[in-house]
Amino acid sequence: MPAKKDPTRRTFVKTAGAVTAAAAASSFQGPLIQKVKAAGDQVLYGIIGTGGRGTYLLKHMAGLDNGRCVSVCDVFEPNLKNGVQTAGTNPTAYKDYRELLARKDIDAVVIAVPLYVHFPVTRDALLAGKHVFCEKSLVFKPEEVHALRTLVNERPKQILQVGLQRRYSKFYQTAKQMVDKGMLGNVTHVMAQWHRNPGWQMKPDPVRQRERNWRLFREYSGGLTAELASHQIDVADWMFGAHPEFVVGVGGLEFIKDGRDVYDNIQ
Ligand SMILES: NC(=O)c1ccc[n+]([C@@H]2O[C@H](COP(=O)([O-])OP(=O)(O)OC[C@H]3O[C@@H](n4cnc5c(N)ncnc54)[C@H](O)[C@@H]3O)[C@@H](O)[C@H]2O)c1
User: Fold this and answer.
1) Which of 48, 59, 74 to probe ligand 1 with, by most ligand atoms within 8 A of CB?
2) Rounded to an integer, what distance in angstroms lies between the CA atom of residue 78 and that of residue 19?
3) Domains of the chain: residue spans and CATH
4) Nearest of 119, 120, 161, 112 to residue 139 by alpha carbon
5) Using CA atoms, how far apart are residues 66 and 44, in angstroms rounded to an integer?
6) Is the CB of 115 under 6 A from ligand 1?
7) Coil/strand/helix, residue 186
């Protein structure tokens, strides 16, 4: 942690301004695309899971000229079609992600499947020699993270990146620089909040009700902690350069009684 300093308001505002300007001057690019060196000019990538987040990412990546989506995979036909359309690059469509991973021309994969499937898909992608960007949270069960660490350590030439969105925010990057420069003094506490109204809604689906609403069931989901608090917990890890030593939490299901079994509020 930075040494304790006592900045005056004038020096604080001046330095904060410089830090913000520096942050604003750097243009946005996904780190995966920045770091990966493709054989040709473009990184050829595939995407696995083209639901809400996958298509959101595809829209953003479509604007990058050093990457090209050549393949899309989803088990759910309407989302697969939507993914193909959103990519706009005439990608090959697969329902089985292993077929996508078997393609030798694909350098990298973006994984945006539900949390409970992150581990098998990420593991298989690394084993297939791909660079991987996997949406947060990286894993569902503790043992899965240990297995991935081992795999990544064995493959130093491959990149595994986790999609924790605050790391790409100019605001948070600026706050991080302010912490690093000691402008906030000796930072010992982070209080983070996330409020949302009306909260996650149960999507009607007579055939795949639970799978489509995977976020709302503990069988598939870590609930609010994994889906939202993970971003803020990561901010604290990032600012302090350390991981939590222990965790205490409380929560309840008080307001949204629609059949879900994850809490609708947590602390
Ligand atoms: N970084 C962020 O801010 C952010 C925001 C939203 C979601 N996410 C993360 O993105 C992931 C996806 O969330 P979402 O909201 O898009 O969920 P979603 O349910 O809308 O989409 C998931 C998609 O994966 C598909 N899928 C499920 N199993 C599959 C398999 N075995 N192979 C291929 N496709 C499969 C589903 O059919 C669906 O289309 C989650 O891990 C979530 O936490 C991150």
Assistant:
1) 74
2) 44
3) 31-166 (3.40.50.720), 189-266 (no CATH)
4) 119
5) 9
6) yes
7) coil
d(CA 139, CA 143): 9
**How is residue 47 written in tokens?**
């995407």
Amino acid at 233: I
Asked if pLDDT for residue 215 goes beyond 80, the answer is yes
Distance from Cα 99 to the centre of ligand 1, integer Å: 19
Which atom of ligand 1 approaches the CA of 79 most closely? Answer: 39
Measured from the CB, is residue 79 less than 6 Å from ligand 1?
A: yes
Q: How high is the mean pLDDT of the chain? A: 88
Residue bearing the CA closest to ligand 1, atom 27: 113
Compute CA distances 188 → 41, 83, 207, whole Å: 45, 44, 49
Instruction: Convert the pLDDT of each residue in 64-108 to its tens digit.
Output: 889 999 999 999 999 999 999 999 999 999 999 999 999 999 999
- Residue 166 Cα to chain centre, angstroms: 9
140 lines ligand 1 (CB under 6 A): no
CA–CA distance, 220 with 230 (Å, rounded to integer): 16
Name residues whose C-beta falls within 8 Å of residue 217's C-beta, 6 or more positions apart in sequence.
210, 260, 261, 262
* CB proximity list for 215: less than 8 A, separation 6 or greater: 114, 200, 221, 223, 227, 262
Verify whether ligand 1 is closer than 6 Å to residue 223 (CB atom): no
**What is the predicted pLDDT for the residue at 63?**
87
